[in-house]
Amino acid sequence: MVDSSSLSDASVVAQSLKDKDSFAVLILRYEAKLDRYVRRLGVANADDRHDVLQDIFIKVYRNLNAFNASLSFSSWIYRIAHNETMSWFRKRKARPEGHMADDGDEILGLISGGESSEKVHLEESDRAAISEALERLPQKYRDVLVLRFFEERTYEEIADILEMPIGTVATLVFRAKDRLRILLENVGYLYGHA
Q1: What's the CATH fold of domain 8-92?
Q2: What CA–CA distance (Å, rounded) separates 182 from 97?
Q3: Per-residue pLDDT of the chain (194 residues; tens, 9 = 90+)
Q4: What residues contact residue 89 under an 8 Å CB cut-off, 6+ apart?
Q5: Which of these, 87, 101, 190, lies nearest to 137 by C-alpha position?
Q6: For the chain, where do the domains classified as CATH 1.10.10.10 start and end?
Q7: What pLDDT was estimated at residue 174?
Q8: Cβ distance 75 to 157 under 8 Å?
Q9: Going by C-beta distance under 8 Å and a sequence separation of 6 or more, which residues neighbour residue 39?
Q10: Any idea which fold 107-192 has?
């Protein structure tokens, strides 16, 4: 048997279409990444995230035939993850919750305008202030910030994931950064940090 760790995502998808056991490779590759992404979108409870992840992988498996191998599998699975997470919120009439900045030590560089932000050590109170500000942003802004700065996706990948033009992504990222900066200034956070 071929070592599947060296295969591209598209090759594993093709293999999974022939042998359903090969789908486990995709789960292993993406489970931790998607768990982190779903948490960053605001599903704080681990059991709820497990449910959302299960729905994501079921949907991915059922739609493997629809995957276009000339496109990025990563963007495709993130789009499904985004859509399933938003559906989960709608079904429960819930709002995002949790601490989205738990591991976002680069957020201060983001706010000051740098896309190649410097690493900053954040205290717990810093994380709480940033998480609260992120949670107060409208969903469309939170989505692009999470994908761009926490998931480190390119504008092209974000456009694929959110199914919107690249120009719209750039505009949303600019506006989101500005809104986040204003929110943090309003709570007095930036005065001692930026």
Answers
A1: Rna Polymerase Sigma Factor; Chain: A (1.10.1740)
A2: 21
A3: 456 678 899 999 999 999 999 999 999 999 999 999 999 888 888 999 999 999 999 999 999 999 988 789 999 999 999 999 999 988 887 666 654 554 444 555 555 555 444 344 445 556 677 777 788 889 899 899 889 988 889 999 999 999 999 999 999 999 999 998 888 887 666 545 44
A4: 42, 95, 96
A5: 101
A6: 107-192
A7: 93
A8: yes
A9: 49, 98, 100
A10: Arc Repressor Mutant, subunit A (1.10.10)
Map residue 188 onto helix, strand or coil: coil
Contact indicator for 90, 37 with CB cutoff of 8 Å: no
CA distance 64 to 60: 6
Measure the CA–CA gap between 169 and 38, rounded to whole angstroms: 20
Residues 122-157 as b/e (b if ≥16 CB within 10 A, e otherwise) read beeebbebbbbbbbebeeebbbbbbbbbbbebebeb
The sign of the CA dihedral 143, 165, 55, 60 is negative
| Residue 56: count of CB within 10 angstroms of its CB | 26
Q: Where in the chain is the domain with CATH 1.10.1740.10?
A: 8-92
| The residue type at 43 | V
